[in-house]
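We modelled the chain as a single entity of 245 amino acids. Its sequence is:
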Amino acid sequence: RLNKWIDTNPDEIKQMLGLMIWMGLVPLGRLDSYWSENSKSETGDRQCGLAQDVCMELSNLILNEGRTMYIDNFYTSYELATYFLANRTHVVGTLRANKKNIPRCVLNAKLKRGEIISRENNEGVVVLKWKDIRDLRILSTKHAPSLVSVNKTHLRRSTKRQHKRALQKPEAVLEYNRAKCGIDLSDQMGAYATTLRKGVKWYRKLAIELLLGTSVVNAWVIYKAATKQKIQIRKFRELLVQQLL
């Protein structure tokens, strides 16, 4: 029985929700393996930052199989790339401008549209910066810093007709864009017929969108595969609600 109630603040609620999600993703066997009295996680010796260690823990079972990890800029780092490379796993990820251990001559370079600058070390880690509409920084252990031609449909304002123009893009950028489509598609499906509103508290949005919304999308995909039926996700949500009533 609790003898004393202690007030909580939004930061502590965020930590608890994040911890619950982490517990579902990374089974450690003991509750005290996730936290201690000093509010820091105890998941073993930290090799990099907390964000990079999350990637390492979640990928332990798929290392040394020649896979390629496509990573968001929040997680991408030189240390993470060398770790995966040592475990026969490639990394392709966008980079933030303030990342450490990345050549500053690449991150701070002033480029014109279509220009590229890159550096590669002896281990095979490539860091490049390419200018399109805006700067794009990317790290890859799989691709050379080479440009490939692509056709891009462009709407000409004067005639309002579409025409294709040749465009040079880094191969790493093309591969990254193809790979991240799966994540964007999941977010897109979850956004249809959403119950989220502006006035909803952030922690309720987290529960509704991340936990419940993702579960509904996964259930919809499984239902279509099992029944071979074509059904819109909005209709599936309605049927799901009827079954739960």
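As a brief sanity check on the tokenised model: The helical segments are 10-25, 50-58, 78-86, 104-107, 171-191, 202-227, 233-244. Residues 125 and 141 are 5 Å apart (CA to CA).
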